[in-house]
Amino acid sequence: QVRLVESGGDMVQAGGSLRLSCAASGFMLKPHVMGWYRQAPGKQRDMVAVLTSTDTPAYADSVKGRFSISRDDATNTMYLQMNSLKPEDTATYYCYFKEIIRDHESWGQGTQVTVSS
Question: Taking residues 93-105, what's their average pLDDT?
Fold first, then answer.
């Protein structure tokens, strides 16, 4: 079981920036996918950005050009750099891991991002 712990959520004004971190521990068998999802109150959880099994990034249309996903394999940490934040980016952001061969998923506990207008 992979354990994921997010950090970095905060309250910022529109136009500001935040960097979220996801510290992963446990045996991370490859191939796998890691990424970020978000969920606003009363809405479904949606993909924000993922790193595919070949470490290719993919982004939701709503964040393209503003958000950037990356990872540091030396520390097993994944990041989400969020720039030009908008009020509609307000949500709880979750770190996600999926081991492809055994189809095992892990989720973090979430970190709150609030963007004020």
Answer: 94
